[in-house]
Amino acid sequence: MKNVSFVGGLCALLATMIWSGNFIVARGLGDVIPPFTLACLRWSTGTVAIMPFAAPLIWRDRALLMKHWKHLFVSSVLGVTVFNTLIYIAAHTTSAMNMTLIATTTPVFVIILSRIFLGETITANRAIGLVVAVAGIVTLVTRGNLDVLMGLDFRVGDLWMLLAGFIWAVYSIIIRKKPKEINQFAYLGVTFLAGVLPLIPAAAIELSVAPPLNITPTVIGSVLYIGIGASLISYMLWTKAVTSIGPVIPSLIYYSLPAFCGMEAYLFLNEPVTMIHGVAFLLIVGGIVFATHPKFQKKA
User: Fold this and answer.
1) What's the rounded Cα separation, in Å, for the pair 155 and 160?
2) pLDDT tens-digit map of 226-243
3) If we measure between CA atoms, which residue out of 277, 293, 234 comes closest to residue 42?
4) Which residues contact 126 (CB under 8 A, 6 or more apart)?
5) Which of 53, 54, 121, 223 has the greatest number of beta carbons closer than 10 A?
6) CB 297 within 8 A of CB 116
7) Is the separation of the CB atoms in 230 and 18 below 8 Å?
8) Is the pLDDT of residue 50 over 50?
9) To 5 degrees, how large is the angle CA 176–CA 22–CA 280?
10) Distance in angstroms (rounded) separating the CA atoms of residues 267 and 256
C-alpha cells in the first residue's frame, strides 16, 4: 500500500512539473510564435503522438462516440481549442508566474459553477476558502496596489488567464458528465483531433499576417515538449496517480504548480519572484485547500 501511495504521489508530482513547463514555453515563445499557431502546433503534435494508441479504440467504439458527439464536441472546443489558446494569448502581456498562480484558481470557478448548475452546497468553510482565494487573485493582479483595482489598470494577460481558468472550470463541469462507457484513450484521441481542427485555419490566417516563423532547435524542442510532454505524458501520469490513490492527494500536489513555475521562470526567463507572488500563493493555495479538502468540509 505504501508503494502504491508513493508511485501515485510521484506520478502526480511529475505531471505537475511537466505542466508547469507549459507556462514557461508559453512565455518564452510568446514573441516568437503567435498564440493560435502555437496552440495548433501543440495539439497537432499531441494528436500525432496519441493516435497510435487511440485510433484502434476510436474505430472500435465509433458507434458509441457518434452517439455522444455533442458532449465530445463541446469538451474538445473548450478543453483543447479555447483553453490553451487563451494561455498563449495571456503569455504576451503577463508573466509565467502570474499565469500559473491564476491557473490554480480554477477550483474557485468550479465550486461556483457546481452550485449554479449542479445544485452543490457551498458550505461555510468552502465560502471562507473562496473569499481567501479571491483575495489572493486580487493581490496578484493588482500587484498589491489597490489603486490598480480602483483605476481598473489590470494587466491584460492576467484577465485573459482568468478567462482561461473560467473556461477550464466549465470544461471540468462537463467532464463530470463524461459517458463512463467511453474508453479514456478513445476519449482523449477524439478530443485532441476535434479540438485541433479549428486551430488549423486560425493558425493559417494568423501566419498570413504575422512575420515568418524562425524555426530553431529550441522552438522544435519546445513544441515537442508541450505537444508530447504537457499533453500526452502528463495526462497518462495524472490518470495513473488518480486511479492509484484517488483525486484528493494529486489535487493537493497540483497546488505546487506555482512553486515549480516560479523556479523555472527565474532560471530560464529571468523573471523575478517577488513578495507579492509569495503572499498571493499563500492566499490562493491556502484558500482553495480550505475550500476543497474533505477534512475541512466535514466540519462545516
Assistant:
1) 9
2) 999 998 888 888 878 877
3) 234
4) 111, 291, 292, 297, 300
5) 54
6) no
7) yes
8) yes
9) 80
10) 17
